[in-house]
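Researcher: Checking consistency across runs. Here is Gustatory receptor again:
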Amino acid sequence: MLPEDIYLIKRNLTFGSQYRCLPLKWDSKQEQLVVHGTNSQKLAISSLFVNLFVLLGRLFSVAKSSSIVAQSEAAIVAGIYLTGFILRFDHPVDHVAIQLVNFLVDPDIDKFDRTRTPKLQLGIRFFYWAAEVTCFFISAILGILSFLSPCQPILLSSLLCSKSNMGQGHKHVLQLVFGTIEVISFKQLAVGGIYYLLTVLLHGISFLWLSCQSLVKGYKSSFSIAETINKYKELKVYEKVLNSCTKSRIFLTTALLVPAMQILICFASIQLFRSEQVSNVLASVFQWIYFVILLFTILMFSAAAQINNLSTNWIAECRRRCGNKLERRTHKSLMSLRLEFGNNFVEALTPLVVQEFCARQTVSFLLLCR
């Protein structure tokens, strides 16, 4: 991994230690990730319960909202908190994921022959900075709205709103409490999401993709068939480790909930632009979030599909160079690299299927609300 990427990982883990939302930290002496002490882990679990409380409040606000626009806004925020809660539910701590990241940040591991930084790496860096900037602005907006307009459907304080007014006796105290919860909980959500989605998932996929490309180039140039098959088996081991870390929680949650969030945010942003009761600023915020999520889903599924496609094509091409009986038998045992989520895996057409589904469902929602 390049120093620029390691810097972003360290930066994210520093924020995680500040907001007590991750059960791990960066050890400057060992130059790797380590698990927090018992007291810090208890604080991380406490922040997870706060996230659960906020999530339940968001779900209740969806049912309480009257208009379709208000319900869609509340549903989007509830979906974001649901995704963050599942991603951060890492208890007991998955030590395999920590070892995976330590493997990726080891400077001796990254020996790829790069003439320039791959587009996938540039995309991951963009998501780090985009997530940080978006987190800062959205948490600031939520905190300000808690004072200026506490009855917005995207706020927890809307639960205490009535047709007359928000609690009379201790109004400003309640606004301060809810504003603080909004800011801190959203920052904890964003920092935790950055670690699990970008550091573990996307960087894990990126390493496997670069390794596949390096294998194909070496196979075409100088590697013998036996040496190439041995290198491919090493990639299969790495694939098994990556799948064990991501397929049951991180990748499964991302593959199911993030496209659903993409549909809801696209629908809500269009409805907000068409509504005369909502300012274009809020609609622009939703549109920016939709743009980031759209790029994320395309990049994640496309990279995973490319890995499967590269390995499938390499296995088919490798068959022609198998000379003796042992090499042919070894070749028959090879399976393509598959990034799994639940009981499914990403193949060549998965990115197109996901985006087609998102587009169709968005259009269906818009037609139903005409």
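Researcher: Does this match what you'd expect to see?
Model: One thing to look at in this run: The mean pLDDT is 84.
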